[in-house]
Amino acid sequence: MTTCNGLKFYSPNDVAVKSDGTIWFTDPGYNGGVGSPPQEGFQGGYYVYQFHPTNGNATCRAVITNGLIRPNGLCFSPDETKLYVADSDGGRHRIQVYSVSSSNTLTGGAIFANVTNGVPDGIHCDVDGRVWSSGGDGVYIFAATDGHLIGKIRFHRTANLCFGGPQYKTLYMTGQPLVTSIPVRVSGTPSLKKLQSTLQSGQLTLSWPAPSTGFALQETEQLAPPGGWTNSPLPVIPTNNLNTVNVDATNTAKFFRLRLN
Questions:
Q1: Is this model's pTM higher than 0.90 or not?
Q2: Is it the case that residue 8 has pLDDT exceeding 80?
Q3: Interval 50-71: pLDDT, tens
Q4: What average pLDDT does this structure show over 65-86?
Q5: Are 36 and 136 in the same domain?
Q6: Contact 61, 49 (CB under 8 A)
Q7: Among the four 16, 26, 74, 208, which has the fewest Cβ within 10 Å?
Q8: Residue 130, domain extent
Q9: Strand pairing category for 242-248 and 237-239
Q10: Domain boundary among 162, 183, 204
Q11: Which CA distances in Å does 130 have to 44, 92, 146?
Q12: What is the largest CA-CA distance in the chain?
């Protein structure tokens, strides 16, 4: 894909995949060999886009067209209700946060955090919602609640990062001039982890792709206050490349999630 609604991109950069299959990406125009917008035949600016490959029409649309100068790295919060976008213009060193609706519309755009050395480029969330960002002197870790700096991994200039390895507890960093990995004590947020549910004859069936090494089905009777999640005792039945769990109807509210152990 080189165009959106008939207009070319400048130089797409980073991508995040939401559990509904939508693909979100930025176009900051770096190293594209095209002048600053607007240019004839190109988009009107450096935007953030959403591509929907599974809706029958494979539609693309710009979802953020103002408030950012050079949208670069982006990632979703673990529950996908927030979208974080790094603004890496030379005069800006910040990450902005947007609220995501169930229909994938965005609101907000407040400043979430600032990188004090260099600019934020690649960003990623861990399973508890903290935002990890590359920077000029290493990796910055920001609190999920208010974006204050929790800590920093001192390193060379870091351009991008991601979680991987067993339990997603390895942090990979692209630096100057090396790619480095280190073990960390918290799991990163993986993609495509959403539970599917079907209801038939009073019985709820939950399913998710198999195999799913390291994941556990958890349950709680209330969402607030958080902290009451426990591993579900319900038996998991592998079938047709899916893990399935059958939940009998009761008069008690119960919530389920799929999370790395």
A1: no
A2: yes
A3: 998 766 666 899 999 999 999 9
A4: 94
A5: yes
A6: yes
A7: 208
A8: 3-183
A9: antiparallel
A10: 183
A11: 33, 21, 10
A12: 62
Q: Is residue 188 part of a domain?
A: no
Q: What pLDDT is attached to residue 226?
A: 58
- Which residues are 83's β-sheet partners? 76, 98
Quick check: 71 and 123 in contact, CB under 8 A? no
Residue 42 shares a structural domain with residue 153: yes
Terminal-to-terminal C-alpha distance of the chain: 37
Indicate whether 43 belongs to any domain: yes
Number of structural domains (the chain) is 2
Chain-centroid distance of CA 58 in Å reads: 21
Q: 228 or 114: which carries more pLDDT confidence?
A: 114
- Asked whether the beta carbons of 153 and 139 are under 8 A apart, the reply is yes
d(CA 2, CA 11): 9
User: What is the arithmetic mean of pLDDT over 80-92?
Assistant: 91
Q: Token pair for residue 157?
A: 């200039």
**Which residues, including other chains, have CB under 8 Å from residue 14's CB and lie 6 or more apart?**
25, 26, 72, 73, 74, 122, 160
171 alpha carbon, distance to own chain's centre: 15
94-132 confidence digits (pLDDT tens) = 999 999 998 899 999 999 999 999 999 999 999 889 999
